[in-house]
């Protein structure tokens, strides 16, 4: 695969994230909405989140994290495949 294909593998998902943020809800948590409507929201606890709320930068971080994991798994699979062959 040449360099242009690798670059496109990162640019296309980033463009999708940028475009998707315009369509994302400002209040995406349906469970929280239902809990508020039914009156049991006060029973919930705040939980720790590394990236916090939904945002463009979190989407881009997610793309690079996923890509790094996939590249790492591919590298490991390639190593094990080479060891099996000889």
Descriptive overview:
- With 86 residues, the protein is mostly helical.
- The protein has a domain at 13-21 and 53-86.
- The chain is 70% helix and 0% strand.
- It has three helices and no strands.
- It has helices at 3-23, 30-38, 56-85.
- Helix 1 (3-23) runs antiparallel to helix 3.
In short:
The chain is 70% helix and 0% strand.
What is the succession of H and E elements? HHH
Gyration radius over CA? 20 Å
Helix and strand content put the structural class at mainly alpha
From the spread of the alpha carbons, the general shape counts as: elongated
Gap between N and C termini, in Å? 25 Å
For the largest beta-sheet, the strand count, sense and barrel status come to:
none
**Uncertain regions spanning at least 5 consecutive residues:** none
Helix content: 55-70%
E-strand count:
0
Structure annotation, total helices: 3
Beta-strand percentage range: under 5%
Mean pLDDT across all amino acids: 81
């Amino acid at each position: 695969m040449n360099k242009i294909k690798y670059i496109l593998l990162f640019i296309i998902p980033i463009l999708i994230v940028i475009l998707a943020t315009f369509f994302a809800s400002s209040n995406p948590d349906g469970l929280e909405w239902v809990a508020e409507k039914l009156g049991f929201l006060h029973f919930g606890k705040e939980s720790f989140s590394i990236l916090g709320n939904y945002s463009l930068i979190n989407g881009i971080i997610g793309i690079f994290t996923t890509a790094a994991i996939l590249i790492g798994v591919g590298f490991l699979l390639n190593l094990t495949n080479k060891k099996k062959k000889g």
